[in-house]
Amino acid sequence: MAAVTKYPRICALTMFNFPYGCVCTTMGLFILPEEANRLFPANKSLALGLFLLIVGISQLVCPLVGLVSDRCTSMFGRRRPFILLGSLGALGSLFLMRYSSLYMYPYCFAVSLLVAMTCLNVIYSAQCGLVPDMVHESKLGTASGLVAVQQLLGSFTGFLCVLRSSDLDIHLSYPLYQMLLVLVVSVVLLAATEQPIDGPCRLPSLREVARSYTIDTSANYDFFWVFVSRTFFYAAVSCQAFMLFYIKDVVGTKDDALAREQMSTIALIGQFTACLVAFPVGGFSDTQSISRKSMIYFACAVMACVYVMFISAPVFFNRPKVLLAVYATAAVYGVGNGCYLAVDYALALDVLPSKSTSGQDLGVWGIAAFLGSSIGPVMWGAVLKLAGKEGDGYKFDGYVFMLIGGCICCFLSGYFVRYVRGSR
Questions:
Q1: Are 148 and 278 in contact (CB under 8 A)?
Q2: Which residues contact 255 (CB under 8 A, 6 or more apart)?
Q3: What's the pLDDT at 166?
């Protein structure tokens, strides 16, 4: 089968990133903070950190799914069976999340969240394997840019819906997630015309499963340094999970519906500017115009500046103008985030230890996001808690320490990618 080079087909193969971006971003920045406040009002910051830890833990399934799908000999191909099964599990667990929230079953909600995110990561891991399997090497940067744009458009669409329905019940989000998932997965399954692998399907041994969670450094350490850099970047980005609290405590918006609307506006600005830069940056990285590593350096520097701006806004502006400064900062954030996402996937594809184990290796690459997005929120939630409360919210000092920590993580992300030799 000829490698895919056409934009529409690449777009269809990577389309799951649209609902994945929509669900993960709106859930992390809007749904889970609201659910933490409803289900655990006395310990909302720690509950939010726990929920985000659960979201991160769910990504541990990715290397296992990649390992098994690399060996799958189903007549439907290597990846499609996992996409279908993951979709069915996600649809059922999203229903349970809504039910648990409506009837105030906090621990049932947490378990349902774990199952839902695990199933979504089964789909994500299988879909990631489609690109190295089917897309031509000369189009990897383009594919990475399309992945970024689809994730960002998913986030943009999700927050646009939140903005338009800020006064409605948050439980409407769950059936919307389900409908979007059914539509997009159908497109991916039709586009992924995989060729079955001959021979019996050999299940991995326990030793092979354990080995799938390690990085092969026999040839070089490039993939390892990409992993380390990505971990620190996602730890830095996880500060954004507390943005709703920042709006209420620092900007001074006390009304919940208005705070949700402002949060959505911030996200929309950031996602829009990121969309503007992601696709061209990804395409240019396939040429000699710009290197993928230079875009990582630039993105990390911009993100660090963004956190400094979040610290400075309430110091240099009075409260009516703080929100405008935050909106302007969100646009800068989008530029940095868009540049990073545009080359993140392509950089990993450049330095895969082996194409025959691409699903497994990309699953390990996904764990970097798990480590950053799980350890980060726990650290930042603890920082806010230790800094103490001021009224019903947290002290400004807590946000300062949290954002300084984010700056340090940005610096480390850029620093470690300099050791990658197998990509420009």
A1: yes
A2: none
A3: 63
Sign for the pseudo-dihedral over CA of 121, 163, 278, 292: negative
Distance (Å, whole) CA 1 – CA 309: 50
Backbone torsions φ then ψ of 200, nearest 5 degrees: -75, 150
Rg (CA), the chain: 21
Q: How confident is the model at residue 361 (pLDDT cuts 50, 70, 90)?
A: confident
Mean pLDDT of 311-324: 85
Amino acid code (one letter) for 228:
V
Largest CA distance in the chain: 69
Q: Mean pLDDT score of the chain, rounded to an integer?
A: 86
- Higher-confidence residue of 393 and 330: namely 330
- Cβ contact 129:64 at 8 Å: no
Instruction: Identify whether the C-beta of residue 410 lies closer than 8 Å to the C-beta of residue 300.
Output: yes
Residue 1 has pLDDT above 60, yes or no: no
Are 9 and 36 in contact, with CB atoms under 8 Å apart? Answer: no
- pLDDT above 90: percentage of residues in the chain: 30
The helix or strand, by DSSP H or E, that contains position 389, with its residue range, turns out to be: strand 389-390
Of 11-15, 249-253, 333-337, 411-415, the range with the lowest mean pLDDT is 249-253
Cβ(164)–Cβ(103) under 8 Å?
no
Per 3-state DSSP, what percentage of the chain is helix, strand, and coil (rounded to 5)?
A: 80, 0, 20
- Structure-token pair, residue 410: 């940005």
d(CA 14, CA 184): 10
Tokens of 6: 């056409």
